[in-house]
Write a structure and sequence with these properties.
Elements lengths: L1 H5 L7 H21 L2 H12 L3 H29 L1 H19 L5 H17 L2 H11 L4 H29 L1 H20 L44 H5 L2 H11 L2 H17 L8 H22 L5 H20 L4 H30 L4 H30 L3 H12 L1 H7 L14
Length: 430
């Protein structure tokens, strides 16, 4: 199996070590902070009796901050390199977790959570993605798919966090988490080398392997993109329909992701016969589904057109979200976990790889940063809108239906995101 994943050469390409470190960093950041938010929110609600709107505001403000930070973060990643940005993000996150443990009211809760969000943004998915894209071309979908699995494994880590919250208390669990993140994150950051040439290597470890008998390249994926003679700059990418189509398609399903991360556990706790602890079952099922989606997209993304696969992902978010909204028993809850999990796992891998295929790796950090500015309002709407509508109507049902339908509009944006061409005549050929 390993040769199929990493190649037949016994010497593992160094880029895969970066992917492995990225898996662990995404797992820790996602599991101990983002996925664990619902369990912290349940503990805070029990202690302070805050309304759902407070948790929605906190989640929404952090998403707005993350979106506004995106262009600056993207520039900084391209300018200073992933290793430096990872260390800044990990340190900020650890500090935020320690301060989170001493919050005393709604304002301090929102303030410390914003600090956490800044840290996870700088030291999380975008920074790791830029590093991986720089090291891979032919195996890009595969590398991004494996790297993205870290966030999925983070859902399992959040279950550990929920156990710690129950056993130690949420304040003690937060401090322990911050210390652990600081030590482990800094240790992993040493693996992040900026470019293959810094280690005397080439992208993907070298040119495609050739058949010993015929001398032909043994791959169906071209070594270089035949549709352009150089990479897009961020300014050129922003002027294409493909950039906006991919950004909006990336953002629309985040309404379902946002409503789940911000209010999913609270929603389950309000269902007759359920409590917050039952959220662990849904999280576990969703992890399995996400892993399946990521593995399938990692395998298929380098072999088949990505846009039709992305359309299936958008439909999965739509149907899964509706299942959660209308759930009154375990069956629709499990259906949500399977459909949304598989779509979530496949979408992130495919759309990130497609964006790199379209625009290249040279200014990928800047392009991802501007993408973040476009897509994060969708998660803000899902998080904040769910809380507001819950307090108005007394349940999450209407909010979840609205945001699930909104996620389905991603199909239209994917259809609009056709391959771009450079704005100069010589871009049409070599």
């Amino acid at each position: 199996m390993l040769p199929a994943l990493f190649g037949s050469n016994r010497n593992i390409f160094y880029g895969w070590y970066i992917v492995g470190a990225g898996i662990i960093i995404n797992m820790l950041m996602g599991g101990l902070v983002m996925h664990a938010f619902g369990f912290y929110a349940a503990a805070l609600k029990d202690e302070f009796a805050w309304s759902a709107t407070i948790f929605g505001i906190a989640s929404a403000v952090t998403r707005v901050e993350s979106g506004l930070l995106g262009p600056i973060q993207g520039w900084a990643i391209d300018r200073f390199g992933p290793r430096t940005m990872l260390r800044i993000g990990i340190t900020t996150t650890a500090l935020g977790m320690v301060l989170f443990a001493v919050l005393w009211d709604e304002i301090s809760f929102i303030g410390f959570y914003i600090l956490l969000s800044v840290g996870t943004s700088i030291g999380g998915f975008m920074t790791v993605s830029v590093a991986v894209v720089t090291w891979f071309d032919r195996n890009r979908s595969r590398a991004i798919g494996f790297m993205s699995m870290g966030f999925t494994f983070g859902a399992l880590v959040s279950i550990v966090a929920s156990v710690l919250i129950g056993a130690l208390g949420w304040r003690e669990a937060s401090v322990a988490t911050g210390i652990f993140l600081l030590v482990s994150g800094w240790g992993l950051s040493f693996l992040f080398t900026r470019h293959p040439s810094d280690k005397g290597l080439e992208v993907d470890g070298g040119p495609p392997p050739r058949d010993n008998a015929s001398g032909e390249v043994r791959t169906v994926v071209p070594a270089s993109n035949p549709y352009r003679h150089r990479d897009f700059t961020a300014r050129e990418a922003l002027r294409t329909r493909a950039f906006w189509g991919l950004a909006l398609a990336h953002g629309a399903p985040l309404m379902v992701v946002g409503m789940w991360l911000g209010h999913g556990v609270l929603h389950i706790a309000e269902l007759p016969g359920f409590d917050a602890a039952d959220g662990r079952v849904i999280v576990t099922v969703m992890v399995v589904a996400q892993l399946a989606g990521q593995l399938l997209s990692a395998w298929s993304g380098d072999r088949y057109p990505k846009r039709p696969l992305l359309i299936l992902c958008m439909v999965g978010h739509l149907v899964g979200g509706l299942s959660l909204a209308l759930a009154e028993s375990w069956l629709p809850l499990i259906g949500f976990a399977v459909l949304n999990g598989a779509a979530w796992g496949g979408r992130g891998t495919l759309i990130t790889a497609l964006r790199a295929d379209y625009f290249g790796a040279s200014q990928f950090g800047r392009i991802m940063g501007w993408t973040s500015l476009v897509m994060m309002p969708f998660m803000t709407i899902g998080m904040l809108g769910s809380g507001i509508l819950r307090d108005i109507f007394g349940s999450y049902d209407l909010a979840f239906v609205i945001f699930s339908i909104g996620a389905g509009t991603g199909v239209l944006w994917i259809l609009a995101a056709t391959r771009p061409v450079l704005p100069r005549p010589q871009a049409s050929g070599r």
